[in-house]
Design brief:
The complex is a heterotetramer. Chain A is an alpha+beta fold. Chain A contains five helices and eleven strands, in the order αββββααββββαββαβ. Chain A has three domains: 45-102, Phosphorylase Kinase, domain 1 (2-Layer Sandwich); 108-142, no CATH class; 143-188, no CATH class. Chain B is of the alpha/beta class. Helix content of chain B is 22%, strand content 15%. The radius of gyration of chain B is 26 Å and the shape is globular. By secondary structure, chain C is an all-alpha fold. Chain C has one domain (3-317): Formate dehydrogenase/DMSO reductase domain (Formate dehydrogenase/DMSO reductase fold), CATH 1.20.1630.10. Chain C is globular, with a radius of gyration of 20 Å. Chain D has helices at 17-25, 80-84, 110-114, 150-154, 165-181, 225-248; strands at 3-8, 51-60, 63-72, 90-93, 98-100, 121-123, 128-130, 160-164, 188-190, 200-204. In chain D, the strands form four sheets. In chain D, strands 8-1-10-9 form a four-stranded mixed β-sheet. Chain D has a two-stranded antiparallel sheet with strand order 2-3. The longest helix of chain D is centred in the C-terminal third of the chain and has 24 residues, at 225-248. The chains are: A alpha+beta, B alpha/beta, C mainly alpha, D alpha+beta. Chains in contact: A-B, A-C, A-D, B-D, C-D. Strand 7 (111-113) of chain A pairs antiparallel with strand 12 of chain B.
């Protein structure tokens, strides 16, 4: 590398030295300079996670910095991805945070839409869960097939994006209610 | 996946068909690239030249929906090669570990595309019971084997006869694949039939989303068994699953036909546990013992199912589950036989008013399901709907989607904010069956709650309502349900899933110790062993050292995988009759004769190798099958024991080139807003797929600007010839239409699609990603507005991958 | 073609044009004065005075072009001869300094008669320095563009020649325009103007000799001819270069989106028309009557042509 | 020790993790883009996009291929941007990476025109020239923290590697030899010698210029600056001599003046 740098110096020296004798070459641009040392922001917490997109199961590290910025990178210790991530995995931080602020598209409150209404209304968790529970009971009771211990009037979708424990509990709840229209994205 | 992601590096030939691994599972290419560095070949078969194809040694285009012709042709090639060069194949494996040598009933017949007689049902056809009975083994539970494979009624000969019709010319005529390309694929992949060589088939929805999707996979299985690629490192049939926990949600059986751990769902008429298990063929009576093989015993592991269902019932109903009440078996709902409760059937049932209430947990059927226009219309028939998601998705706002008047929609809608994956704690299972724990890193957004807490709270409230209402029907099961989840944690549930010894209160060590007398519980027997007294929560294990003696990349100390941390399943087929590995460089397990034990991966059962074990204990390798050997011949499926080529529901051809039976006779044909298109109006083959930059319906990616930047708009890919005919320039706005709807897209005119010559006819294909919809930051049309409401004969998975369309430029 | 998005856009066209023209005007007036035995001091003063304004416009635009105006001073604590812009900054500052000192000396000698002989000597020396700096100033504007990675600008060494000849042409034309304007202003008897002009035009009156204007016009004819020759050479060399990027720029210029501006705007209106108009009247007095109007507009066209040539070459190089 | 990044095009699947990794690490916002008939986006590098992948569809000997080329700063040893910078704000780090001093840059834009690869872009908001710093930006310096550049860390296939330049040159040469032996006679290690040796090198399976549009023999922007100065100066000389001497030497026609002898 020394040689190449010197030949470069020589080249520019030769071209300009003759013209501008009054001023020697300022080689600032070419000679290596040391960088100002500014350490990375101090990390407050690091948690391991598994990517929420495809099913390769890549490990990732969620770093939350002092200023609240969340960054997510591949977990270098993880044997499957060895620190690598695809663009989706890397963009995971934006699910929570956009440009340092909460992602404005996230749902942050329970919302209710009355029949034939044109808009959402904010409701409390309590109200929502109580209302859903009573709707579920009413539907189940009115469509109960006693001989088979099931309801055909209540259906459940979803689960591929839930954790195993959540899937298990959802399965348990649905079966206990007698739901047989029970499906999720593995089917489609 | 029978194997796992890292194991791809051990392969000598990676055959990717019906998958676009480089785009949809980018990290898989970490391991595929390493295999290639070692000299492995990469084959990509796809209607479209993809980023996967760009790295392939051999790329072969094919008409979407003709996989069975392609694979059948490969099977034909391999059978002929086996007969000519048996030394190039593992004949011991073929004869001893598969049912190739077993004799089939003499009245088996295959005629003009059909395996017997069909009777027509409401939504689909079905073979008569009489016809199905001809598919079985001669000799019933003790079929005989002809190790010479010469008996004209042995599986090998029947298969040979069946696939002799799939010669390279005919295959090329059907698939549109140039014959040379097809033969290059055959030749390269057949080389993995050698002892010590391994080939892996990686597939995904490109294979399954057809009216004969299961038979596509059956084709892969036959090919892999003929090439002795099952159970070995670098081999296997690897479903590259698309959702982070679709494996776990399947294991937990959020599906209409199975209970946690793949136990069958009870149906009306299951009088008791025993009859239920008999009907499910998960009973000692379903054991089949072949005669004439070196192995003389079939483990038929499923005969243990009684232990698993009883342990499940104990987990769910606790002390209320007793031997007297069959452990609460009758509190489980029983399906009505013949009713299709799957996704498509569910939407039809909403449409016809059967279903009144629906809750949707992190799913988006209004964009992700087939025939989305129909699904959106159907949702308006519901009385109420709950959407639990981290975003406002298409399903949650179906009532205010473009073009509808919200005031006209009566459905009451509840939208609950859920936590994203790193705002909560829990485990997920990847495609390689590794269950991995993830931790909470940040506080939930706003009032968002983990689904776990929402479910726990909701059911507790429902339970209270039933406690208060003595007249409510069917309340026993609810009242007896164990639901002690006031301060529910993922850890608590993980323990429940693993299960307890109810006498001691200690966690169960493994499913081998589960009992059918009600003294053990396990929420999912397959996950029994994930959380033990000794090792704690194994899903959280982080030992980065590969402890396998030959370092084949198992990393058994990193997380935990089912069953019992076995990283490569069917691994007893990776060794010869003496327990010596076929591939000495990458042995999965091998028998240590000095120590009289297996070393390497957790073996498929600890029994000694067949030649080492005593007579009467020579256990055949495929322990999950009743007959102990792998099924080249598969009589359990709806449309027959061998895959046969049919045209998709919407085909550009007038007839099936191979037989008089044009479509799969057993396919499910929906009725809800399901018009069928014809080639005169819709002359082009349309297929849908995903791209690297977005995910599923896009709701998880279209709200992330970095990903929108990379792939901003809905697009339609097409070949240059078609574009020229239609006056479409690259980048133009186009409308793609099917009999069911229209979508707007940006034309991507590319050489990556090429017109194919099919039976002398030029076929153009158009490709659409299905990542867009009307909700979220970046919107666009959903490709599923075009897809048909038809499904596979066995699973009813929708035929997203092949239908007819037309295209025009928008000025 | 997104002209608005080009890194080197309209401010730089004007900057390079104004700075070049200032240099061109200085050079023209200096040479005219020297060759005519010092009889054109007025013209020289006019060149320096208006040149300063042009150069200041150039400096202002250069600074406004900087992403970080407040940090412009970084340029003046750095000497980097290999950086054309660094040199250019120094040349422009040097030129401005010289021009301003000359201006000050002229004003001083007006008020302090005793210093006149010293001031004359000093301005004489400075005018030589200014002459050299003017040449460097004009050349720098071309070298700045040419020392880049755009083949259209860089592949031939002729871009600086085009810029220099165009700078001289617009410099001459500028002097013609301002001379005619000054002479016309003199006829208006405007008191403020008279006061202003007397500050340093007093010793030889403030009228620009009409013969001098005629001579400038004649010079302009010659310069235009040279400019046409250099432009043709530039285009021929470019088309022979074989560089696809350069050829594409050339195509844009002569046959593409820029061709109307190039052929009608630059070649026809900016060069050929003034050339013909001025050459037709070679033997006549350019400074009065209808001919003055023709001369004025011809020179004006050349001035605008000078802007156009920079704009077109900068756009074609970046498109 | 001289460091470098090696990009092996034959291993890249264009997943574009590197593009997002770059955005995330440097806290860059997403750009508004649109599909114009290609997967490639954003269309060009910018102050907010320091790295992008190019998608190239090509047919060679009747065989179609889809090629993916990294586009970001190549960190030239002979860096034109550094040479032309009027304030010396662009310099090389001890590792050999070209760094723009954000506290000294005045945003003049000269580097954007000088770069043979059109890499630097002006951030009109901050008024600074921006480009890939190989993750050495002050306050964002991964190398100091013992990390690899973000793009390299996230690359799944090993298409991007980071290390000592000498070692990467050997690795790159070996890969090129392999390609040459496997039907790619024009395989080339771009950057081994170009511009004094680049600190980002490409293993290419084909000709840099014909297939990938890279300059075959890139030159420093000021390579023939003497000729350019001379061209201007000679022209000035010719003009000095020609019109003015010709026209003005007949000074007697002029009325005013001091009467001193002047001119030629």
């Amino acid at each position: 590398m020394e040689i190449s740098r010197r030949s470069f110096l020589k080249a520019s020296g030769a071209t300009l030295g003759g013209l501008f004798l009054f001023n020697g070459l300022d080689d600032k641009a070419i000679m290596a300079r040391s960088l100002k040392k500014v350490p990375l922001q101090q990390k407050v917490t690091e948690s391991t996670t598994i990517c929420c997109y495809c099913s390769v199961g890549c490990g990732a590290i969620v770093s939350v910095y002092e200023d609240g910025i969340v960054k997510i990178e591949g977990d270098p210790d993880h044997p499957i991805n060895e620190g690598a991530l695809c663009p989706k995995g890397l963009a995971m931080s934006q699910i929570h945070q956009l440009d340092g602020k909460p992602n404005p598209y996230r749902l942050t409150k329970p919302l209710y839409r009355a029949p034939n209404s044109t808009e959402w209304e904010e409701k409390s968790w309590d109200w929502m869960l109580d209302t859903i529970a009573s709707r579920a009971k009413a539907t189940r009771d009115s469509t109960w097939v006693a001989s088979a211990g099931r309801t055909d009037g209540l259906a459940s979708f979803g689960g591929g994006e839930l954790d195993n424990e959540e899937c298990y509990l959802l399965s348990k709840m649905n079966r206990a209610l007698g739901v047989v229209y029970l499906e999720h994205c593995a089917r489609i | 996946m029978t194997n796992h992601w890292i194991d791809l590096r051990n392969s000598d030939c990676v055959f990717i068909i019906g998958s676009n691994a480089a785009e949809n599972h980018p990290i898989s290419f970490k391991w595929i690239t390493q295999a290639k560095e070692r000299g492995a070949k990469l084959i990509s078969v796809d209607p479209r030249f993809t980023r996967t194809s760009s790295k392939a040694d051999i790329y072969a285009p094919m008409r979407s929906g003709t996989d069975i012709a392609f694979i059948g042709g490969m099977i034909n090639y391999v059978i002929n090669d086996i007969e000519q060069n048996p030394a190039n194949y593992n004949m011991e494996y073929i004869t001893q570990y598969t049912n190739a040598a077993l004799i089939i009933k003499s009245d088996f017949e295959f005629n003009n595309g059909l395996f017997g007689e069909i009777e027509q049902k409401e939504f689909n056809g079905a073979y008569t019971a009489a016809s199905k009975s001809t598919w079985g083994y001669a000799g019933g539970n003790a079929p005989t084997a002809d190790l010479t494979l010469k008996d004209p009624n042995c599986v090998f000969q029947l298969m040979k006869k069946h696939y002799s019709r799939y010669d390279a010319e005919t295959v090329s005529k059907i698939t549109g694949t140039p014959k040379e390309d097809f033969l290059r694929v055959c030749q390269a992949y057949a080389e993995t039939g050698k002892k010590g060589k391994a080939g892996t088939i990686c597939y995904a929805m490109g294979a399954t989303q057809h009216t004969y999707g299961v038979q596509n996979i059956r084709g892969y299985a036959i090919l892999q068994l003929l090439l002795a690629n099952m159970g070995v490192a670098g081999g296997g049939i690897n479903a590259l699953r698309g959702t982070s926990n679709v494996q776990g949600s399947t294991d937990m059986c959020l599906l209409e036909h199975i209970l946690p751990g793949y136990l069958n769902v009870p149906v009306e008429g299951d009088a008791d546990l025993d009859s239920y298990l008999r009907r499910s063929a998960k009973h000692p009576a379903s054991t089949v013992t072949p005669v004439g093989l070196a192995g003389d015993t079939s483990a038929n592991w499923w005969q243990n199912a009684r232990k698993y269902i009883v342990s499940l019932l104990k987990a769910w109903y606790g002390d209320a589950a007793t031997a007297e009440n069959e452990f609460g078996f009758h509190w489980l709902p029983k399906k009505k036989p013949g009713v299709n409760n799957t996704h498509i059937g569910l939407i039809e049932a909403i449409g016809t008013g059967i279903i009144k209430g629906l809750w949707v947990w992190g799913q988006n059927p209004a964009a992700g399901g087939p025939n989305a226009n129909g699904a959106r219309e159907a949702l308006a028939k519901l009385d109420w709907m709950v959407s639990v998601d981290i975003w406002e998705n298409e399903t949650a706002i179906f009532w205010k989607r473009p073009g509808v008047d919200p005031a006209s929609i009566k459905t009451e809608v509840f939208m609950l904010p859920a936590c994203c994956s790193y705002e909560k704690e829990g485990s997920i299972s990847n495609s390689g069956r590794w269950a991995q724990w993830r931790y909470k890193a940040v506080e939930p957004a706003g009032e968002a709650m983990p689904d776990l807490e929402i479910i726990a709270d909701l059911m507790a409230r429902i339970k209270k309502l039933y406690e208060a209402d003595a007249s409510a029907p069917g309340r026993e099961g609810i009242l007896n349900l164990t639901w002690d989840y006031e301060h529910v944690t993922a850890d608590q549930i993980a323990r429940e899933v693993n299960g307890y010894d109810l006498a001691t209160g200690k966690l169960m060590a493994s499913f081998a110790a589960l009992k059918d007398d009600g003294t053990t519980s396990s929420g999912n027997w397959l996950y029994c062993n994930q959380y033990t007294e000794e090792a704690g929560n194994k899903c959280a294990a982080r030992n980065p050292v590969d402890s396998h003696p030959q370092k084949i990349g198992l990393y058994s100390g990193w997380s935990w995988c089912w069953p019992v941390n076995r990283r490569i399943i069917y691994n007893r087929a990776s060794v010869d009759l003496n327990g010596n590995p076929y591939d000495v460089q990458h042995p999965v397990v091998s028998w240590d004769s000095q120590g009289a034990k297996w070393v390497g991966d957790v073996p498929d059962g600890g029994w000694a190798p067949i030649n080492v074990a005593d007579a009467g204990a020579k256990v055949l390798p495929f322990i999950m099958k009743g007959e102990g050997v792998a099924r080249i011949w598969g009589p359990g499926l709806a449309e027959g024991p061998l895959p046969e080529v049919y045209e998709p529901w919407e085909s550009p051809l007038a007839n099936n080139i191979m037989s008089g039976q044009k479509n799969n006779p057993c396919a499910f044909i929906g009725k809800w807003m399901n018009e069928q298109g014809t080639p005169d109006k819709y002359p082009y083959v349309c297929t849908t797929y995903r791209c690297t930059e977005h995910w599923q319906t896009g709701i998880m990616t279209r709200n992330l600007p970095w990903l929108n930047e990379l792939m901003p708009d809905m697009y339609a890919e097409m070949d240059e010839e078609l574009a020229e005919q239609k006056g479409i320039n690259n980048g133009d706005k186009v409308v793609v239409s099917s009999a069911r709807g229209e979508v707007n897209a940006v034309a991507v005119v590319t050489k990556r699609f090429k017109p194919l010559t099919v039976n002398g006819q030029t076929i153009h294909q158009i490709g659409l990603p299905w990542h867009w919809g009307y909700a979220g930051m970046k919107t666009g049309d959903s490709a599923n507005r075009l897809t048909p409401h038809v499904g596979d004969a066995n699973t009813t998975i929708p035929e997203y991958k092949t239908f007819l369309c037309s295209v025009r430029r928008v000025d | 073609m997104n002209i608005g998005g080009m890194e080197w856009g309209v401010t730089l066209w004007i900057d390079l044009w104004a700075a070049g023209m200032a240099g061109g005007a200085f050079l023209t007036a200096f040479l005219a004065d020297k060759f005519s035995g010092g009889r054109l001091k007025n013209l020289f003063k006019l060149a320096v005075c208006t040149g300063i304004i042009l150069a200041l416009v150039g400096v202002a635009l250069l600074l406004s072009h900087l992403g970080n105006i407040l940090w412009f001073w970084h340029m003046f604590v750095t000497v980097r001869p290999e950086s054309v812009l660094s040199l250019g900054g120094w040349i422009l500052s040097g030129w401005l300094t010289v021009a301003c000192i000359m201006l000050v000396l002229w004003i001083i000698s007006h008020y302090a008669r005793g210093l006149k002989s010293f001031a004359d000597k000093a301005t004489n020396v400075l005018s030589w320095v200014g002459f050299v700096l003017s040449i460097l100033l004009m050349t720098y504007t071309g070298v700045l563009i040419s020392a880049s990675s755009e083949p259209f600008w860089a592949i031939t060494p002729l871009l600086p020649a085009v810029f220099v000849v165009s700078a001289v042409a617009s410099g001459v034309a500028w002097l013609i325009v301002v001379s005619l304007v000054v002479n016309w202003l003199n006829t208006t008897g405007n008191r403020a103007w008279n006061w202003f002009i007397e500050q340093f035009f007093d010793d030889s009156g403030w009228q620009i000799d009409s013969v001098a204007i005629s001579k400038l016009a004649k010079s302009l004819v010659v310069v235009i001819v040279v400019e046409l020759v250099v432009l043709v050479a530039f285009i021929l060399w470019l088309s022979a270069s074989g560089s696809p990027a350069a050829t594409e720029g050339l195509r844009l210029l002569t046959g593409g989106a820029l061709s109307l501006w190039f052929w009608v705007g630059l070649i026809a209106a900016g060069l050929i028309a003034p050339l013909i108009l001025l050459a037709m009247n070679w033997k006549r007095d350019f400074s009065s009557g209808i001919l003055a109007a023709i001369t004025f507009s011809s020179a004006g066209l050349v001035v605008l042509g000078g802007l156009l040539v920079r704009a077109l070459l900068l756009i074609a190089g970046q498109a | 020790m001289s460091k470098a990044i090696l990009f092996d095009l034959t291993k890249c699947t264009a997943c574009r993790g590197c593009q997002v990794a770059c955005k995330q690490w440097n806290e860059h916002k997403a750009e508004e883009t649109s599909n114009q008939g290609s997967f490639e986006n954003p269309k060009e590098l910018s102050a907010e996009t320091w790295l992008k992948m190019r998608f190239i569809e090509t047919e060679r000997n009747g065989k179609f291929d889809w090629l993916f080329l990294r586009r970001a700063c190549l960190h030239c040893e002979e860096a034109s941007c550094a040479v032309v910078c009027p304030v010396g704000a662009i310099f090389k780090t001890e590792d050999g990476f070209v760094h723009i001093d954000q506290e000294w840059c005045i945003g003049c834009g000269t580097c954007t025109q000088a770069c043979p690869f059109h890499v630097p872009h002006i951030d009109h908001h901050a008024g600074l020239a921006m480009k890939c710093s190989a993750c050495t930006s002050v306050g964002y310096n991964r190398l100091d923290a013992g990390l690899k550049p973000a793009c390299v860390s996230t690359c799944p296939t090993g298409a991007l590697t980071f290390g000592d330049r000498d070692e990467l040159v050997s690795a790159g040469r070996a890969q090129v030899d392999k390609l040459k032996a496997n039907g790619h006679p024009n395989a080339y290690l771009y950057g081994e010698n170009e511009l004094g040796g680049l600190h980002v090198m490409y293993v290419l399976d084909d000709s840099p210029s014909a297939v990938y549009g890279l300059p075959d023999d890139p030159k420093v922007a000021t390579a023939d600056v003497v000729g350019k100065w001379l061209s201007g100066l000679v022209t000035a000389g010719v003009l000095t001599a020609l019109p003015f001497w010709l026209v003005f030497k007949r000074k007697q026609e002029l009325a005013g003046g001091s009467g001193k002898k002047g001119g030629a």
